[in-house]
Amino acid sequence: MKKATLTLLATLMLTSSASAATKLVFSFWGDPAEAPPFLEIVKNFNATHPDIQVDYQQTPWSGYWTKLDAQLAAKAGPDVMFITNVPTYASRAQLERLDSYIAKDKFPIADYNPEFLAIHKYKGGLFSIPRDNDTMVLYYNKDAFDAAKLAYPTDKWKWADLRTAALKLTQRSGSRVSRYGVILENNKWPTFVYQNGGKVFDDPFNPTKFMLNDPKGVQAIQFLGDLINKDKVAPAFQEMAQIGDSTQLFSSGQAAMVMTNAARLTTFKTAPFKWAVAPLPTGPSGLRANTVGGAGFAMNANSQHKAEAWTFLQYLAGQQGQIIFAKAGGAVPAMNRDKAVAAAFDVPFKSVFLAESDRKGVYPNFAAYVQITNTMLNPALDTVWNGESTAKAALDKIAPDVNKMLK
């Protein structure tokens, strides 16, 4: 009887403790293959923090932002979130500034590359801690290259080499393309602009002038448009909505090359062919560029549990979380000055990813950029990707309006 009573009391105490735990919500996007490190972090944190229990919301990239924007506009949403375009959300007072939390708990922010941190700031304050650097590399199907008797890509490749290979690797059955030579991702075009020595704006953080319609920017955009419409070696972005994204097309053998990030390593493991990774091709003059900066973790300014949210955010973005992400191999870790984190990033083609992470190429990152992109840039670029307009005509047309918004 006494033993039964003690067992009952213990059960009641555990139940009471669990019910008294602060509940947090953590949101992130990604393909199913990208979820395991996020879930491992949540599981480990919950096991070691019985007073805080984290639930998660996973949404595909395509629907993540619509959902998050609606939640934040209603002063609701997750307590901690995976985020990009930090200045846009910080300018709306939707993200909590993290500097005081970092200083109070001596969070090791110095272990992060300062260039990675730059795009997570707004008006001098840090509003997000980066998870990774969104480093792009060139994945290529070795079997396809072998069949076409083509030499594999090297660090000497320029745009012309990419185009020549894509022309030879593209396979057609009548007017239908059965395999594209290369897949492009529609949000990566700034990298090509930088590889050509061009700029999107005069300053990516505090712009005063739109510069994409300058000759070097126009040439880069037209090069991509020609791959789609003139050479027909890459699918139009609207077409990809019907036939599959870059991950699906490459892993199924419907594309011979794709320029994308480390997150695809896990997905491509099951591809039914041999593949490898090479550095990005350079621009015509040999200039190298890549993506500097990636997604990060932020705290909702309207969270009702900020102390607990910061506890989770420290775990998520600190050494413990970074090691889990690094071991998963889905991203080049942002906390790359921490020796344990750097050692944990042990993936195929590690040297290529790390070398490409040192390239320059900060994407535009200011409060109005999302609005400019959605209302002016993307509609103009779509006319180039669709073959309706030349790059020069499309970009010259929007330049006055973009400059007016910057002022």
UniProtKB/TrEMBL annotation:
Membrane-traversing stretches: none
A GO CC term assigned to this protein in UniProt: cell envelope
InterPro entries: Bact_solute-bd_prot1, SBP
Key words, A-Z: Signal, Transport
Coiled-coil residue spans: none
Subcellular location: Cell envelope
Signal peptide, first to last residue: 1-20
SUPFAM superfamilies for the chain: Periplasmic binding protein-like II
DNA damage in keyword set: no
Family, as annotated: Belongs to the bacterial solute-binding protein 1 family.
The protein, known as: Sugar ABC transporter substrate-binding protein
Lineage of origin: Bacteria, Thermotogati, Deinococcota, Deinococci, Deinococcales
